[in-house]
Structure prediction request, 365 residues.
Amino acid sequence: MLNLLDYDPASLEALFSQWGEKPFRARQLLRWIHQLGERDVLAMTDLAKTLRARLAAEAGVELPRVRKDSCAPDGTRKWLLDVGASNAVETVLIPEGDRRTLCISSQAGCALECAFCSTGRQGFNRNLSTAEIIGQLWWANHRLAEETGLAVHSDRRVVTNVVMMGMGEPLANFDNVVAALRLMIDDRAYGLSRRRVTVSTAGLVSGIDRLREACPVALAVSLHAPNDALRDKLVPINKKWPIDALLAACLRYLDKAPRDFITFEYVLLKDVNDSPEHARELVSRLSDVPCKVNLIPFNPFEGAGFERSSREAIARFKDILMRASLITTVRRTRGDGIDAACGQLAGQVQDKTKRRLRREAEATS
Ligand code: SAH
Prediction:
């Protein structure tokens, strides 16, 4: 069975051309599935009967199942989606004024092992398929359209922004993430502006370069440290692509990016990376890159081994950046009470990397 959610606009046109169908059939089908939320191909009344019959025989719209739906007092909503074989991933909707941002997962777990991230602690199982990635947006849109009367694709749309900041490293699942991005920005499907779709990466330089060519959208980079010695410890992929190489890739990306700056994320960890010296070093490091800095107060989880910086330390850090003319924001913690904040998404991951065993062995040796 083909899952029609796995197809981006170009691959759907290619499938239809193999079937001897006209390209505009792809537009009709995308609209039914993504804008109208129709899962039953037989109900797609403007498709020819023969095409409907073929679709019914060979294809379907297969969505991940929702296992749990939680809502925090601040309106943040979290869905736990079953992706089979005892793996589940999380999707978070963050309402803020007229904006409704969906935070989407790209992998079951994550292979990168950033020191302060709970997804990283859980290990890695597999990449999500395009259907499982776009299915998160499909689900949030259609569930909320029912509840609120908003539409999927209009001036009053349900999900207004997407951030690839859920579980996983999006650029490590490149092809499926790009296919999903193409659906997000295509007018025949979700029609979001490239500026309202953000990929966040721990710093995969080759992936940043490929994304620039394949589907440039807004880019956020998880920097978290102003020098390689510290970043090697916090974000181990830094050993492969150190800060200079990463910042050079950011500059190359800006040639094609829909926004004229890169967002740098910087999680503030008490007594680890939050001193005035770190702030000054960061300022000098970023002096050549048009950017904004988003400071993220650390969100604790059990056994993390890190603490959130004090309010004073956060204010002082921000102040040093601002005085150096770096546009700096502090990310508001959302989703308290349902573990929906950055770095707290854990879902359920059947670890294939034996990471937990290795950590335990290291701890006892
Ligand atoms: N793998 C991608 C996207 C995932 S996470 C990336 O690394 O960018 C989104 C952001 O949350 C990243 O900047 C990540 O470093 C940060 N984060 C991870 N754990 C966190 C925690 N416990 N508290 C605050 N932010 C965290």
